Amino acid sequence: MLLNDRFLKACLGEAVDQTPLWLMRQAGRYLPEYNATRARAGSFLGLAKNPAYATEVTLQPLDRYPLDAAILFSDILTIPDAMGLGLKFTTGEGPSFEHPLRTEEAIKKLSVADMDQLRYVFDAVSEIRKALIQNGEQRIPLIGFSGSPWTLACYMIDGSGSDDFRHAKTMMFSRPDLLDHILEINVQSVAMYLMEQVKAGAQALMIFDTWGGLLPDGWYQRMSLAAMQKVIELLPREHEGRKIPIIIFTKGGGLWLKDMAQIGADVIALDWTMSLSRARKQLLEIKKPLALQGNLDPLILFSGVKQIESATSALLQDLAKAPALKPGLHSLDGHIFNLGHGINQFTPPDSVSTLAQTVVSQSKALRVKQ
Is 193 a residue of the active site? Predict the structure, then answer.
């Protein structure tokens, strides 16, 4: 039994008593307890590849804040690491691969990720799910996730993070056949990876398309969106007698909202470049009453208490004025509060407390008013 199922209900467009809240990177470097656990683990990979440590840091923000979902602590680059690309993390430089895909020969040798090498992820999912159970009831649901096929390809080709992923985009323009091959391998790998997370205990799934917004119109639909649709078509939609909601997030993708609504996801997560009310109206215009997730700018958390309260309230008030998702619902139903991207590592933890308290109080008050 789930003690708190607001998040799952909101994903499926059902009525809830208050707006559910969780945050991208809610377990991370802004929390001193996370940094203490990471120090014990010795490195980021030591943390991510140890199910006990991954469980510990996943639970840490839940003990601080009134969050409505937990998300697996891991990294999107685990899949290409299991393909043999040699993932490493260098202090001050971030992740990189020892064997990026720069030649046709390397690309043709690429094969679907070995799920056995990712067993530590699935073990972590199982441990987290068990740790969420208290007195026979599960506190909140657990989200599993993966990077999108396109976003993974960006790192696999360029070899590390980048402002423009020049090598990946050059391959797209000059040799789209090679990129198509990588994407197809990634589609199969991502689908298998997410399926295994569901088997291990994940109750919702999110696909992070962090770099889809770098693509030109037309290329986004062909290279990123089509690959995500293929993944979704391969995923189980029910497990343990419940529907498994699927969330997609393309950073900078608001202009493609109507296209994103067609690929089979239950929830579309947005960054701060599109208002939630405008998104709701656009989805209703095309008769796609999908739930929305987002979308406060995470850098607002560096301002003062009044500014955080004001921005959070304004976001909720904006959606409250939009049409309801379905007849009989409040306008705020079918919305999961989140940031428009991950929490910055230097964010003051008290700012997150202010955000969470405002979401709870304001979303309750606005429901009473309507």
Answer: no
